[in-house]
Structures are given as C-alpha cells and as structure tokens.
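dude i think i finally got it to work??
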Amino acid sequence: MKVTKLLALLAVLAMVVAACGPSEAVDTTAAPDGATTTAATDTTEPATGGEAGAGGELILQQWQAPSGLNPYLSGGTKELLASSLVLEPLAEFSPEGELVAAMAEDVPTVENGGIAEDLLSITWTLKEGLMWSDGSAVTAEDVVFTYEYCTGTTDCTQSSFFGGIVSVVADDERNVTVTFEDPQPFPYTAFVTYQSPILQQAQFADCMAEAATACTEQNFGPIGTGPYVVDEFRTNDTAVYSLNPNYRGIADGKPFFGSVTIIGGGDAEASARAVLQTGEADYGWNLQVSPTVLQSMEAEGNGVVKAGFASNVERLMVNQTDADPALGDQRSEPGTEHPFLTDPAVYNALSKAIDRQILVDVGYGAGGEPTCNVWPIETATGGQSTNNDDCLTQDIEAAAAMLEEGGYVDSDG
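look at this
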C-alpha cells in the first residue's frame, strides 16, 4: 500500500469531518411598533406588555423546505423544526441542556416517585387542563396511541425511541406508565424531544399501520398543543401558522410572534441574502455558505449571523465491511471485513492527517469548531471530553509512521 496515496485520499474525503453548528442569519431591524426580531429563535418569549402575538409576523427562510409535518414519518431536521411549532413532547431539553417538562406536569425522577426504584418503569403526569388546539382535552390515551401508532407501522422513522419498551399504559386520564424490558438508568427517550411528540388519537385513529403515509390531511396539518396551528401547508414550499387560541401560555404573553411563515426553496446563499440584504425574511436557517460571502453580507448592517452549537458533527463514516465486487451479493454485508479500513493503524493515520482547523476556516467560519468527538457535548464537570484531543493537531509524519509500523510500505516514493 502506498502511504502517500492513502493520505491524499484522506485529504479529499476529510471535507466532511469538521464539526459544525448551523449558521443562521437574524434580522435585527426595528419593526414598526418598535419591537425587534432579535428573539426570532424563541417563538415563546413573552411579549412586551404581556400580550401574546405582539411581535407580529415572523418570516423564516428555510431553504431546505419541510416535506411534511408529521415527525414520525420523517427523520429530517427540516420537518422536525416545522412540526415542533404545533406538536409537543412530554418533556424537552432547554437551550442549557436541561430536561424540562412540556406537556408533562414535571419531569419524573426516582426522588419524586416518577421512576421506579428498580428503573423498570417511568410514570408521566400530564399538565392539568391541557387542551388540543381544537379545544378537546388531552388524555393519557393520546400518549398510549402515539406509542401504538409508531410501533404499529414500518414507516415510523422514530421507532428507536420506543425500543426496549414492554408496554405503555394509561393509569387514568392524566397518568401514563412506560414499562421497560430492562432497567433504564436514562428512561427519557419515548415522548421526549421534538422527535417523539404526542399525536391526537382522534385525528390519527384511521392512520395506523399501512394507512399512515396516505393520511395527507393529518400529516400536513396535525392538531397539537403547541403555540401555533397550521393555516396552510404546501409540501417542499411554504408553511403558514397562526396562534393556537387554546395554548396554555396565552395568558402569560406567549408566544411572542402572532404568526409564523416558513418559506422554502432556493439555496443557502439566497436564504442569507433574504435576511441580510433584501430584508424579505427575519431569519435564515442552516446557512451553508462560504464564510467570506456571509461576512460581506453581514457587513451591510441589516442583520447578524449566529452560530448555534449542539451535538451536530460533520464526519466521515469509514466502511468497515468488504466492498470487493467479487463478493457478489455479500459485498459490504455484515460479517465481511474491509481488508485495511478496520486496521487501527489505518483509521488512526487517517484521523491524524486531517487539518480540521483549515476545514473550519474555509468551509464553516463562525459556524464550525474542530472536534475529535462524535458527541461534542459539555460534560457534568464542564467542558468537552479531552480523551481524543490528539487528533486536533495535524501531523502527517506521525500518520505516515503509524502506517509504516502497521506494515504499510511506501514502495515507490
């Protein structure tokens, strides 16, 4: 194996390895009533004066437009974001990474009795008086139905959230117990985050199993408990929302914006231009645009570029199976092994040869940070894990040495 060829291959493929958080453009120009849209990322921020909807219309330029509003039929972030304005889970994570109650009264723990001491079950209690946007009451049966809906069809993209569950049972109108096959030290999976929200049984009752994908009306206009209702939805184009009159936060001045419009189509650069130059939108999402282009747009003073870092990591997945065409139907099948990509000497050398900082500077700018971890999350003691930080420094000589020690010889210079 020629060392120099292997490292050259890496230089090409490594373009997808840098960690990134999506850049977003936020319009900061004053609205006619003196309010600003700097709170565009939080649609439930209380309005000045305590009146819900006082912020007027919020226009989101989401160039990767949602194809539907049922998160159980799509794993794409674009659909999850669009549906989260309407549908809610029992609990979700705050911007600070803390688990907080949404539809639930509180977050169950062993200490408050919500989680069994043997860790085999968790009981959730719904908020009292919780209503769907159509005015009907939310009950524990809706939670049970959501579980049955996802586990009853092969089309459910969020089935992993319900893995290891023995049963989901409504104990009464407001309490539902989830029982697991094995003890769960972290039972906050099913019905937690915008990937696993609660569906209304009355609306989706006829959409079970094979009928799930055919329920266009339900999938494009779900009834939820969130701050907004769907007024109009055009797949891969536009979504229009207005205030949910039965939203529990109305009396507290939430949500801040009275209506939301998601405009799809175009590309990332056009999305940035709509916010930073033409003023057609208040917020542009996932701006995968050259840092120099974004900087020139931002310099016009019409908005600012924000980067939000979470657990998103751009990475290169190395095939561990044997892709030899001679294997026929067994090519790249489980049980086969790649002749050299499974060798630690090779994949460690590949990692060591990457200049992650250059990839960030050229491709992501403020929207990227170098990382060596596929889970770049703050630890309980603060800061990210430093266990793999050796990869942050590119070292071609060290990479070549790893290959040579592994028996890979540069035979022709």
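The two ends are 11 Å apart (CA to CA).
im so relieved honestly
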